Amino acid sequence: MERQIMHVDMDCFYAAIEARDNPSLRREPIAVGSRSSRGVLTTCNYEARKYGIHSAMPNFIAVRKCPHLVILPVRFDVYRFESKRIRSILNQYTNLVEPLSLDEAYLDISSDKRNAVSIANDIRRQIRRVTGLTASAGVAPNKMLAKIASDWKKPNGLFHLAADEISEFMSSLPVSKIWGIGKKAEEKLLAKNIRTCGDLQSYSSLELTHLFGKFGGELYDLCRGIDHRPLVSNRVRKSISVERTFSTNLESLEACAEKVQSLFLELEEELFRLKVDRKIAKLFLKLKFSDFTKTTVERVGLAIKESSAQTLLREAFGRKALPIRLIGIGVRLATYHASQSQQLEFEFQN
Amino acid sequence: MKFKIHRDHFSNGLQQVLNVVGSKASMPILSNVLIEANGETLSLTTTNLDLGICTRIKANVEEEGAITLPVKRLATIIKELPNSDVKVEASPNNQVKITSGGSLFKIMGISRDEFPALPEFSDDRSFTIEQANLANMLKSVSYAQSSDETRYMLNGVYFTFSEPEDSNGSGKLSLVATDGRRLAKIDYEMEVGEGLSGSLILPAKTVSELTRLIDKGENLKIAFNDRRVAFQIHTKDEADGFVGDILLVSKVVEGNYPNYQQVIPKETHQRIKVERELFLQSIHRAALVATDKSNSVKIQISNNLMELSASSPDFGESHESLAIDYSGPDLQVAFNPAFLMDPLKALSKDEIFFELKDEVSPGVFKTLESFLCVIMPVRYT
Description:
The complex is a heterodimer. Chain A is of the alpha+beta class. Chain A is built from 13 helices and 13 strands. Chain A has a 5-stranded mixed beta sheet. In chain A, strands 9-12-10-11 form a 4-stranded antiparallel beta sheet, covered by helices on one side. In chain A, strands 3-2-4 form a 3-stranded mixed beta sheet. In chain A, helix 4 packs antiparallel against helix 5, helix 10 crosses helix 11 and helix 12 packs across helix 13. The longest helix of chain A is centred in the last third of the chain and has 21 residues. Helices cover 17% and strands 42% of the residues of chain B. Chain B has an 8-stranded antiparallel beta sheet with strand order 6-2-3-4-17-16-15-10. An 8-stranded antiparallel beta sheet of chain B has the order 14-11-12-13-25-24-23-18. A 5-stranded antiparallel beta sheet of chain B has the order 5-1-7-8-9. The N and C termini of chain B lie far apart (69 Å). Chain B has 6 helices and 26 strands. Chains A and B meet through strand 13 of A and strand 26 of B.
C-alpha cells in the first residue's frame, strides 16, 4: 500500500516565537542564541537570513554581516511549551507521530481516507490559530521526500509530491537535498560532476558503495526517491546531559571543578524534571579544548554524584594541556529492556 | 623419614586436604602438603594462611620425620599407583622416593622448616554439635552467601550462639546467610552456657571445606575467638584409615554482620502451603524460557490457584498452574527463579509455607521448625 507521510516543520521556530512575543521586532533581523561574543546562534528569522546569517554561525561573524542584528537569549521553557501544544495538535490527527525535535515531526496519515493536502492545511491552520506561528508541511510517500517537500515552499507553504511525480522530481533534485549528504559528500560528488539525483542514478549500487561505504547502498535508493524507513514514535531517550560554553576559556582544573559543581546541580534538576524512571547506566563528562577538539570520559559503576563527575573531570582535563572551552556532563540511560524489571534489595541499617 | 602405607588410606587423607592451597606464586610452599610421620600415624597438613586443615591416617612408620610435597601432584600419583602397598622414603636432600609394585617416583620436596605452622589460639568459647545437624544447617543457608567481594562481610555464614532467654528456655545456634537480595536463617536448640553467647562470620571458603568434611563421624567441636575459629571433626577410625580428628583452623571474616533481623518481615500476610517437590518442578519448568536479561518468574495467586509464568522477548513464554488451598485476596509478585529454587532444593520437608504480601514486599519460605528464607522480589516498571 502506498504510504502518505507528512513532515511538519515550524518556520524558524525560536525566532518566530521571539518575534511573536516582541511585536516591535517583527520586521527586524532577529537571532536567538547565547549573547556572549564567543557563542553561536541557535537560529534566526528570514530577515536575518537575507544577510547570509544561519544557525550555528558564531556571533561575531553574524554581527559583522549584520551590525543591527538583534540577538535574543534562548528561552527553552517557552519553546518547549509551544512544542507541546503543537504536538497535541498533531496527535489529534494520528497516533503515528515521530517528533524529530521541538519544531518538526513526521506523521503517518496513510490510513486516513481524507485528502492528504486538506489534512495538512487543517493542521497548519490549527497551529497558526493556537500558537500564532506558521508551519510548512510536505506530503509524500516516504519520510525522505516528505522532508524535502516541507522545505520546498518554505516559509508558510505546503508541497505535495505524488507517487507518479517522484521520478521527474528526483531527476532534477540537487544531491545536497538528500538526507545524509553534507558538505563533504557533496564535494566528493561534484568532483565526479554529479550535481543532481538524476546524475547519481546512473551509478550502480556497487559503485556507490565503493565511493561512500555502507551509505552508498542507501544512496542508491535515496536518489531514486525510495525510502522504506518506518515512523518511530516514542523515541527512546539514550542520554540526558547539560553543557556550557564559557565566555573565557578555563585555564585551571580548579576553575573547571567549580563549573562542574554547578553543572552537576543542573543535571540533577534535569533528571528530576524529566522524571527519569530508567536505570542510569553511567555518568559521562565531555570537554572541548581551546583548539575545538573534544574528549569524553565515561565510566560504569560510579555513583551519580558530584564527586564522581569531579573524578571524570580530572581524567579528562589531564588528556590535553589546553584551556577548556566547554564542559558537558550527563548520564547514559540503561537500555529500556534491562530496566523493565529490577531486583529489589534489602535495606540494611546498622 | 620412612614409612609404609596403604595406597587408599594415603589417597583418602590427601583428598581431605588438597583443596586448601595458596595461590601466591611468591610462596610455593603453600602448594605443598606437610607430611609428618610419628608413632603409628601420618599427619597431613595444608594451609593457605587463611585456612588450614590437618588430618591423620594410620601408617607403618619405620623412621620418624617430616617433609613437604606438592599436594595436587602427589594426590594424583598416589591415587594411580598400581599396588595397595606404598613405600615412602625421604632423603636428607628433600627428595622423596615413592615405590609401589613396579612403579618408582622420585619427587622434589621442600624442607618442613619453611612450612607455616597452623596457628594456635585461645579458644574463648567452645561448643560441641552433631555433625549431621551442622551439615544440614549449612546446607539450608549457605546458598544465600554473597560472592560480591565489595560486600565482604556477607561472604560467609554468620554463626550466633545465644544463651537461653529465660530459665525455662533453651540456648540456640543460628546460622544466617544473605547476599542482600535474599536471606536464609536456621535455628537449632542447643546448650549454651552462661556467658558463652557469641558470634562469628565463617568465610565462604571455610564453609565449603567444612561442608565437605563433616560426614565422617558423630560430633564436632567448634572453638573460636575474635579472629579465628577451629573445628575438630571426629572421624570414624575404620576402613578409610583415618585416626582421631580432622582439624580445620580458619580466620573469621572480621567486621560486623548487618542487623539482619530488620529485614525479616514481622507479620504474616498471605500464607500458602506448598508441596515442595511440585512447586520446585513448576518453577524450574517456568524458568526454562527465562534468560539472563529477563530472569524472573511471575507468581499470580487467586482463589485456590497459583499460576507461574515467565517470558523472554527473544524466546517465548511459559505458564504453569498449581492447585493450592487459598482464599485470600488475589496477588501477584515476581522473583528470580534461582532464589526460589535454592531453598526448595536445600530443604527436605515435603510441605512448606510460602508467605506473600504484594509485588514489592519480600516472599518468605518457612518450615514449622526453625527455617526461613526471605526473598526480595523483582519489580516490573
